[in-house]
Amino acid sequence: MPQKLSKSSHLTPARAPITSRSMAIREIISLPDKRLRLISKPVEKITAEIRALADDMFETMYDAPGIGLAAIQVAEPIRLITMDLAKKEGETEPRVFINPEILSSSEELNTYEEGCLSIPEYYEEVERPAKVRFRFMDIDGKVHEEDAEGLFATCIQHEIDHLNGVLFVDYLSKLKREMVMKKFKKAAKLAAK
Ligand code: NI
């Protein structure tokens, strides 16, 4: 049946299916790496590469371990965030936020002690809106609007900041921020020797 054969050969995928690819832990860039100040680009289409990036980011985030990661932290200036705020140990709630956008913020503020995988072992209290409404696209390309409060609100704001080249230390006093920057610059110099 030559006709059928030619038809099926036409359907042969040009490359191996994505399921054959295994996840990988990527290097997390940290201060004073200037790429952390880049403005990330929106995702236009959910491609196999975008899915692979999200998979790698989860593996990298869980390994760190951390609760949120922006793509720029693995040196990809793309508007993609992974997060897992599961409260119970042993449980996971992996979430991907693509092209996230804050729609509104509460006047009420909340203070959390924040940390960042790109500013290792440094924690400081940061005040942010207690509640936000935001829009995002999921990994299947569906657009959602969602309300966030508590740790979720802080985390989504912290991660969206990364997409705009903003770090949580930017909210601290000039003195504190300069001390942190100095510390990381010095550590990088020592490591390079
Ligand atoms: Ni961070």
As residue ranges, the low-confidence spans are: 1-17
Mean model confidence by pLDDT:
91
User: Which strand order spans the largest sheet, edge to edge or round the barrel?
Assistant: 1-2-3-6-7
Number of domains: 1
Total beta-strand segments: 7
| Distance between the amino and carboxyl termini | 69 Å
Run of helices and strands:
HHEEEEEEEHH
Folded structure, characterized:
- The chain has helices at residues 2-10, 48-63, 150-163, 174-192, and strands at residues 68-70, 80-84, 94-105, 109-116, 119-129, 131-137, 143-149.
- It is α+β, with helices and mostly antiparallel strands and 193 residues long.
- The chain has a single domain (34-192), classed as Peptide deformylase (Peptide Deformylase).
- The strands form 2 sheets. It has a 5-stranded antiparallel sheet.
- A hairpin with a 2-residue loop joins strand 4 and strand 5.
- The longest helix has 19 residues, at 174-192.
- The protein is globular.
- Nickel (II) ion (NI) binds next to helix 3.
Give keywords.
193 residues, alpha+beta, Peptide Deformylase, five-stranded antiparallel sheet, two-stranded antiparallel sheet, 4 helices, 7 strands, globular, binds nickel (II) ion
Compact description:
This protein is an alpha+beta fold and 193 residues long. The chain has helices at 2-10, 48-63, 150-163, 174-192; strands spanning 68-70, 80-84, 94-105, 109-116, 119-129, 131-137, 143-149.
